[in-house]
Design goal:
The chain has 442 residues and is of the alpha+beta class. The protein is built from 11 helices and 18 strands. It has helices at residues 31-34, 55-69, 104-109, 113-116, 161-175, 220-234, 243-263, 310-328, 335-352, 413-419, 423-426; strands at residues 6-14, 26-28, 41-48, 79-82, 85-87, 93-100, 136-142, 148-155, 186-187, 211-218, 270-278, 291-292, 296-303, 359-366, 384-386, 394-399, 405-412, 429-431. The strands form 4 sheets. Strands 13-11-14-16-17-10-18 form a 7-stranded mixed β-sheet, sandwiched between helices. Strands 1-6-7-8-3-15 form a 6-stranded mixed β-sheet, with helices on one face. Helix 2 (55-69) packs across helix 5 (161-175) and helix 7 (243-263) packs across helix 8. It is globular, with a radius of gyration of 22 Å.
Length: 442
């Protein structure tokens, strides 16, 4: 495919349809938001085929509906004042319109992570200085065939994956005039877990240097076969093992093998997986699903070099998940809970700071289970949904439209060259197959 060129046509600021009241002008973040870096954005890209609705009509509909939904999600139109405060000054969200000189079907035939970045609104502070570092950025890119990509980027200082999904569902409901489906967010901020007087610790920005990103699609039948084998080895019912656990176990096993192959058997290297627990249903008392914020507990799962079998990896993940849910989450609002939050964040910071050279730290963003393929802005459901990331040792998981799981994996260049040839991996996953293209007008 000829290298895709994306040209920015316009950059506008979308403000809430009604000014935010004075008493809501300051939004205080919680302790769980406090040490999240302001440069971290979560991005999801929705691809739509061409139809009878023109691109200009789509653009106007998106901007009008965005202005209306910002009335409810008003912090997204504000500006970060410091590590624990959003100034809800109605500065607005950044809305970018761009064009691509290729056909959507050509792009979907071979999704390229480098080209995919061209469809995502820039989150580089220097590039968006004119927008005063918006918390929410949107980019609408039109292809020569009339197909479109809608990319949404939200600062992780404000929203986790569940909050992101709540926002998109409400925005699409307004855009498609399904007003009864609009979900009004519950913005609790610091009222649940007030921030500490000082930052818990300093976490460095992730690196993208000397890294390669590859997309893999794990097939449902092969996942089911492995799940049965792992369940038998663990002495558990197959239903208690999740697809995500199987996929993560395969990725971690093959990534560890690639790392060992790079450094040689003489250098012992351990692994850590950084994962999260959604607190909404597990905190006491539970929170409604429309609660918006970073309501996640970050935790580390440590693996020794001997924990390389799939059932061992799955068992480790399950044990640590249960430990967090049954012990730490229930006490999170207590004094001891705050202490545990600090200890957990310090451990994660040490792993991300690379203070232990013999530990490979992987981060997982799990977007499986969210109804992204139901997001209809008024011109149909998306052909394909994805979430790009190019940070070293990052793993992004999403549901595949046709069943199974998609994974974007970013590794050191040398390790990726070994990883993507691993026969155990390729027995259950395809390397960057074509994205769904079942529409005739692309």
């Amino acid at each position: 495919m000829e290298k895709m060129k994306v040209e920015t046509v316009s950059r506008k600021t979308i403000k809430p349809s009604i000014p935010t009241p004075h008493h809501l002008r300051t939004f205080n973040l919680s302790v769980l938001d406090q040490d999240v870096l302001a440069i971290h954005y979560g991005s999801v890209v929705f691809f739509y085929p061409s139809d009878i609705v023109s691109v200009s009509q789509k653009s106007q509909s998106l901007k009008n509906s965005l202005s209306k939904i910002l009335l409810h999600f008003y912090p997204l139109a504000g500006q970060l004042k410091d590590a624990v405060t959003i100034e809800c000054n109605d500065q607005g969200a950044c809305f970018i319109e761009a064009t691509s000189r290729c056909q959507l079907k050509d792009f979907l035939a071979n999704p390229d992570p480098d080209l995919l970045k061209e469809l995502v609104p820039s989150t580089d502070p220097k590039a968006i200085r004119s927008t005063l570092a918006c918390i929410l950025l949107v980019q609408l890119t039109s292809f020569t065939c009339g197909g479109t990509a809608v990319a949404v980027s939200v600062s992780q200082k404000f929203a986790d994956a569940s909050s992101f999904c709540t926002f998109i569902r409400s925005w699409t409901a307004i855009s498609s005039r399904e007003y009864g489906s609009v979900v009004v967010p519950k913005l609790i901020g610091a009222s649940l877990l007030p921030p500490l007087d000082t930052l818990i610790t300093s976490i460095p920005p992730p690196t993208t240097r000397n890294c390669t990103t590859t997309r893999f699609v794990f097939h449902e039948p092969q996942i089911a076969n492995l799940k049965a084998k792992v369940a038998a080895a663990m002495g558990q019912q197959q239903q208690r093992i999740r697809n995500v656990e199987i996929v993560l176990a395969i990725i971690l096993k093959c990534a560890a093998a690639a790392s060992q192959s790079k450094y040689g058997p003489s250098r012992s290297r351990h692994s850590a997986l950084l994962n999260v627990v959604n607190l909404r249903k597990r905190i006491v008392p539970p929170l409604p699903g429309n609660t918006v914020g970073n309501l996640i507990w970050k935790y580390a799962v440590m693996f020794n070099e001997s924990d390389v079998e799939l059932h061992q990896l799955v068992s480790k993940m399950k044990d640590e998940f249960a430990n967090v849910c049954n012990d730490k989450v229930k006490r999170i609002k207590s004094k001891k809970g705050y202490t545990q939050v600090q200890e957990s964040r310090k451990q994660i910071a040490q792993l991300l700071n690379g203070k232990s050279a013999d530990i490979n730290t992987y981060t997982c963003t799990n977007l499986c289970g969210y109804p992204f393929y139901e997001m209809n802005f008024g011109w149909g459901k998306p052909l394909w949904v994805t979430s790009p990331s190019n940070f070293k040792n990052s793993i992004v998981l999403l549901d595949s439209k046709w069943g199974g799981t998609e994974a974007w994996v970013t590794l050191d260049e040398v390790e990726m060259a070994i990883f993507e040839r691993d026969q155990e991996l390729l027995a259950v996953a395809s390397s960057n197959p074509s994205a769904p293209t079942t529409h005739s007008r692309m």
